[in-house]
Recover the amino acids of this structure.
């Protein structure tokens, strides 16, 4: 899958053609338009709020906002820039989700990690629990994202994880290029500074290791061994779903921390048809789009 902000989607029809047809009541065009953009919107939402159900709600709400405003799209920018601008505004203004209050700042997260008792595993035990240790790693890093402010979080997700450059990022968030670069730099440094001071994966001098925390997490149902949230075989990694260009990366303070975030999972296995049916069968959407 190509970078959604830098490459054209693979389709027989362009976004402009799909928008035009959907605006004239073509249900198939509307469905194709939704299916093309939905995975990216969902993955931004998932990283933004961490909980899959909350991410689904945000994705549906944002998609409906795009469709209800479709008649105002004037092709002054690409459709995806215009659409993602609506998505980002909705995410920023949406009611805070429970996980955002659980991981509300880095100090709180640091205290949580320090209060989590260590239970070191032997090399053999680490091998046996490798899947759950990786889940612990992904879970912790996902929590770090929520420690950023909402604005920082979106800039980081777009700029670091989706590899949007400062031109695209600034257009989507409606800020200057310099402002986008500065916010991305600050978010990267905040994440890196926390990991450099706490995470043994980034700085070997730090005592915190995922394998030391995983037993407590599993015993207390923080990690559900029968229903992993992140480390699942059907999920790809961001670096596999989004094409990265090392020359485009700005102000990477530590490549090891960046690589860890590029390894976070990218979901494209979710039930897209359920999403789709909920939206196109919405009475307001059907009336508004005059679907045939």
């Amino acid at each position: 899958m190509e970078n959604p902000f830098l490459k054209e989607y693979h389709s027989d029809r362009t976004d402009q053609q799909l928008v035009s047809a959907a605006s004239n009541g073509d249900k198939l065009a509307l469905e194709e338009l939704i299916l093309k953009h939905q995975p990216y919107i969902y993955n931004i939402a998932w990283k933004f709020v961490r909980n899959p159900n909350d991410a689904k709600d945000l994705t549906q709400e944002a998609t409906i906002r795009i469709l209800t405003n479709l008649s105002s799209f004037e092709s002054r920018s690409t459709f995806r820039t215009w659409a993602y601008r609506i998505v980002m505004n909705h995410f920023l203004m949406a009611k805070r989700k429970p996980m955002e209050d659980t991981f509300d700042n880095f100090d709180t997260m640091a205290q949580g990690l320090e209060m989590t008792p260590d239970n070191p595993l032997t090399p053999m035990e680490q091998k046996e629990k490798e899947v759950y240790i990786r889940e612990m790693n992904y879970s912790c890093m996902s929590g770090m994202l929520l420690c950023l402010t909402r604005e920082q979080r979106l800039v980081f997700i777009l700029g670091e994880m989706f590899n949007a450059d400062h031109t695209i990022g600034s257009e989507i968030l409606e800020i200057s290029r310099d402002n986008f670069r500065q916010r991305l730099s600050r978010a990267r440094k905040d994440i890196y500074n926390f990991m450099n001071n706490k995470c043994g994966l980034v700085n070997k001098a730090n005592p915190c290791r995922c394998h030391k925390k995983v037993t407590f997490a599993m015993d207390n149902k923080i990690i559900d061994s029968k229903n992993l949230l992140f480390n699942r075989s059907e999920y790809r990694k961001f670096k596999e779903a989004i094409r990265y260009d090392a020359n485009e990366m700005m102000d990477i303070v530590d490549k090891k921390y960046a690589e860890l975030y590029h390894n976070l999972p990218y979901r494209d296995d979710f039930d897209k048809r359920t999403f789709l049916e909920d939206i196109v069968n919405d009475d307001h959407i059907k009336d508004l789009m005059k679907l045939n």
